[in-house]
Write a structure and sequence with these properties.
43% of the residues lie in helices and 13% in strands. By secondary structure, the chain is an alpha+beta fold. The strands form three sheets. Strands 1, 2, 3, 4, 5 and 6 form a six-stranded antiparallel beta sheet that branches. It has a two-stranded antiparallel ribbon with strand order 7-10. The longest helix has 21 residues. The relative contact order is 0.13.
C-alpha cells in the first residue's frame, strides 16, 4: 500500500465481490498520508493468465478517464488511484499487477437482475458509456482480449472440436451439435455485418452483466465498472450480453431447463434503456439488429460451452462431468425461447 501513499497501521482487508476473473479485496481503515482521514478502497490483482497485457487495460482506462474529464466532466467515473509515482498499476514480482480504486460510499452492485427496472437502468448506463466516448480516436483504444467476441473464430473452434474432440462426448452431444450447426446462419450474418460500413466499431464494454453496474440507494444506475474488457467492438456485444444474462429468470448454471424462458418486459427494458442513450449514435442499419444481438451472444456462448465439453473442459473447467454440456444445453434452450418469442418482442 505504500506505493499508493496509504498507511497500513490499522488496515483491514477482506475479500470482496463475486467476480470470477480478477482477485478483489476491500480495504478499510486506510489513511492517505497526503490528506488524512479514514477511507475505503477496492484493491484488485489483475488476472494475468486472462489479460496477457495488463498495461493495455491501464492505457484504455486512462484514455477514457481523460476524455470524460475533458468532454463530460459531470459524468460519474470511478478512476483508479495513482501511485505516488503517477502510475496506474503496481507490479510485484511473483504476484502480478495490482491497482486501487476508491470505494463509492452509498453505492451497491447486484449479482442478479431482479426487475425490468433494474435491466432498464443497466442498459441506460452501458449505452451512456458508449455514447459519451463516441468521439474518442478508436486507433488509440487497445485490445485487451484478442478475438473475445469473434463468433467466426468460436465457430471454427467448434468445428475443429467435432473432428479432434473426445469421441464419446461427441456422440453424447449429437442432438446439441445438430442444433448448433443448424443455426450457423448467425455466424454468416456476423461476417456480413463486419464488412458493412454502417456497422460501426465503438468503445464497447463487452461484459454487461448486472454486477458491472453501480446503483445508488434508490436503485438508479450510477455508472459502469470493471473496465478490463473495454475495447473496440460492436454494439451487439453489449446488448447481446445483457439479453443473454438478463432475459432468463435463471442463470446458465440451471439444469432444470423448464425454468428457462424469455421475460418480454426485460427484453423491452434492455432495448428501451440502451436506445434512450444511443438512438442518435446508432446507424439505421444497426437499429435493425437488436434482436440479432441476443441471438448472436447466446449462440456464441452455447458454442463455447459445447466446444469446451468436447475438448474435455480445458478452458472453463467443470465442477462435475457434464457441467459444460449442461451449460451448453441451457443456452440452446434460451436461444430457442428467444426465437419462439421473436414476433412478440420486435
Amino acid at each position: 500500500m505504500k506505493a499508493f501513499g496509504l498507511s497500513e497501521d490499522s488496515l483491514r482487508i477482506e475479500t470482496f465481490g463475486s467476480g470470477l476473473i480478477n482477485y478483489t479485496w476491500i480495504l478499510n481503515g486506510c489513511y492517505p498520508e497526503t490528506s488524512g482521514g479514514n477511507k475505503t478502497y477496492i484493491l484488485q490483482r489483475v488476472n494475468h493468465s486472462v489479460f496477457k497485457k495488463p498495461r493495455n487495460i491501464a492505457s484504455n482506462i486512462r484514455l477514457i478517464a481523460e476524455s470524460l474529464k475533458k468532454h463530460h466532466p459531470d459524468y460519474f467515473f470511478v478512476a483508479p488511484v495513482l501511485t505516488l509515482k503517477g502510475e496506474d498499476m503496481v507490479y510485484r514480482k511473483g504476484e502480478g499487477y495490482f491497482r486501487l480504486f476508491p470505494f463509492v460510499l452509498g453505492s451497491h452492485s447486484k449479482d442478479v437482475v431482479e426487475t425490468a427496472e433494474q435491466a432498464f437502468e443497466a442498459a441506460v448506463q452501458f449505452g451512456r458509456f458508449t455514447r459519451l466516448l463516441s468521439d474518442v480516436d478508436m486507433s488509440q483504444v487497445k485490445v485487451t482480449i484478442p478475438h473475445f467476441h469473434d463468433i467466426e473464430l468460436r465457430y471454427q473452434q467448434f468445428l475443429k472440436a467435432l473432428k479432434t474432440g473426445n469421441t464419446e462426448r461427441i456422440q453424447q452431444s449429437d442432438a446439441r451439435i445438430k442444433t448448433l450447426l443448424e443455426h450457423a446462419d448467425i455466424v454468416k450474418t456476423y461476417k456480413t455485418l463486419k464488412s458493412n460500413p454502417e456497422f460501426k466499431l465503438r468503445i464497447t464494454h463487452h461484459d454487461t452483466k448486472i454486477s458491472n453496474v453501480l446503483f445508488d440507494a434508490q436503485d438508479k444506475g450510477l455508472c459502469v465498472i470493471d473496465l478490463d474488457t473495454v475495447m473496440p467492438g460492436y454494439f451487439i456485444s453489449d446488448v447481446g450480453d445483457m439479453m443473454r444474462t438478463y432475459l432468463s429468470p435463471v442463470s446458465e448454471e440451471e439444469t432444470d431447463f423448464t425454468k428457462i424462458h424469455v421475460r418480454k418486459d426485460f427484453y423491452k427494458a434492455i432495448v428501451d434503456g440502451y436506445f434512450s442513450e444511443m438512438k442518435d449514435v446508432l446507424t439505421q442499419t444497426e437499429k435493425q439488429y437488436f434482436f440479432y444481438a441476443g441471438a448472436f451472444m447466446i449462440y456464441m456462448q452455447a458454442l463455447r460451452f459445447l466446444t469446451d465439453y468436447l475438448n474435455d473442459d480445458v478452458y472453463y473447467g467443470a465442477k462435475y462431468p457434464e457441467h459444460n454440456l449442461n451449460r451448453a444445453h441451457n443456452q440452446i434452450v434460451l436461444l430457442d425461447c428467444l426465437f419462439e418469442n421473436k414476433a412478440d418482442v420486435i
